[in-house]
């Protein structure tokens, strides 16, 4: 059998018990699984992790190569079997609301008495403490309360729903990083710890710098320096969109060189500097919107990609996987057995990172 663990990895003999469900916890442990850890997924009997039914494709991506054990943690037998797993584990990841683990009789203090070097990572919406700790929530709630929409970025700014679960992925990435540091520290000292990962906190870790600077523009968001009229998405004649990422002034000058002859309004000297464009945001953004609406996306890309410009087509799902750069980087690999794909770890290691086990565990498959 091909080697599925990086032998250089400090995680190759780490065991993580994962009792979390849905996205944040399973994604965090899937990252550590890709880096060499062994992950035992503990699921409730019957339906198991709700993601099995909600999205089999997502479940596969988050849980490939893990071992599945079905345990009813509300029963004495299930709890005892769980504690036996914990006895030899390096870490535990759970995603219940605060207080649930204590009610089940398997809180951190109880488990640390069994295994003092255990690292327990609790991922919850608002953390283990604070006035929102027990509040219900999902990704949109954490983004709303974490300041995601408090930062003005477009001339015609709108509150729109993100296309993926940004808050969940923010939390899972921070959890994986914290787990790695805590596990290595516990192995060195013999002393574990409890990690309190708040999804809301993790969103704020990303939004705070920009949100803090945006406070003085709440009543007049267009004046925010973060609103740049030439750094935006623009609709093309065929209803598609292109992304124009102009920040440095040299790119504006390149845009003028590329299409200024056809659209002389771009040559207006009031717009020649970034400061000038900031003073005339609405006019510049309206001009660009009108220009890009005159031609279809493919024609714009063919024209603009001949110049040094940060311009990109907004790809649909078919185009994404056919993109030559995506294929060259090998981020996604097809799994012929079930006609699906797996996403590789998004960092290239010079010592190599082998593809993991492609098996998507059946509920309770590894109980023995």
From TrEMBL:
InterPro entries in alphabetical order: CoA-transferase_III, CoA-Trfase_fam_III, CoA-Trfase_III_dom3_sf, CoA-Trfase_III_dom_1_sf
Domain of life, per lineage: Bacteria
Pfam annotation, one family: CoA_transf_3
Keyword S-adenosyl-L-methionine listed: no
Alphabetized Gene3D superfamilies for the sequence: Crotonobetainyl-coa:carnitine coa-transferase, domain 1, formyl-coa transferase, domain 3
Tagged with keyword Amino-acid biosynthesis: no
GO MF annotation list: transferase activity
Keywords: Transferase
SUPFAM superfamilies for the chain: CoA-transferase family III (CaiB/BaiF) (SSF89796)
Name assigned to this protein: CoA transferase
Organism of provenance: Paraburkholderia pallida
């Amino acid at each position: 059998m091909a080697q599925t663990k990086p032998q250089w990895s400090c995680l190759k003999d780490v065991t993580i018990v994962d009792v979390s469900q849905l996205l944040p916890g399973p994604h965090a442990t899937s990252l550590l699984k890709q880096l060499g850890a062994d992950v035992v997924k503990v699921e409730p009997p019957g339906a198991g992790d709700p993601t099995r039914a909600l999205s089999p494709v997502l479940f596969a991506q988050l849980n490939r190569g893990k071992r599945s054990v079905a345990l009813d943690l509300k029963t004495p037998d299930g709890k005892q079997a769980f504690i036996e797993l914990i006895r030899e584990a390096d870490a535990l990841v759970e995603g219940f609301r605060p207080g649930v683990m204590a009610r089940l009789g398997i809180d951190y203090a109880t488990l640390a008495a069994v295994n003092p070097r255990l690292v327990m990572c609790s991922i919850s919406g608002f953390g283990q403490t604070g006035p929102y700790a027990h509040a219900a929530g999902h990704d949109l709630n954490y983004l709303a309360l974490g300041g995601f929409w408090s930062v003005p970025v477009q001339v015609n700014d709108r509150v729109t729903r993100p296309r993926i679960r940004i808050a969940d992925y923010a939390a899972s990435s921070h959890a994986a990083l914290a787990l790695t540091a805590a596990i290595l520290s516990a192995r060195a000292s013999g002393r574990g710890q409890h990690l309190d990962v708040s999804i809301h906190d993790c969103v704020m870790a990303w939004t705070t710098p920009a949100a803090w600077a945006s406070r003085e523009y709440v009543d007049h968001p267009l004046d925010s320096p973060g609103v740049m009229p030439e750094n935006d998405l623009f609709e093309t004649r065929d209803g598609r969109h292109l992304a124009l990422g102009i920040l440095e002034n040299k790119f504006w000058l390149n845009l003028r060189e590329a299409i200024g002859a056809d659209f002389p309004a771009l040559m207006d000297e009031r717009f020649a500097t970034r400061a000038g464009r900031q003073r005339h945001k609405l006019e510049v953004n309206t001009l660009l919107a009108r220009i890009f609406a005159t031609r279809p996306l493919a024609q714009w890309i063919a024209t603009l990609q001949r110049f040094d410009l940060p311009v990109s087509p907004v790809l649909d799902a078919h185009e994404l996987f056919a993109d030559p750069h995506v294929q060259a980087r090998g981020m996604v690999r097809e799994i012929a057995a079930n006609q699906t794909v797996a996403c590789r770890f998004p960092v290239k290691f010079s010592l190599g990172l082998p593809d993991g086990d492609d098996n998507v565990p059946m509920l309770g498959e590894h109980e023995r």
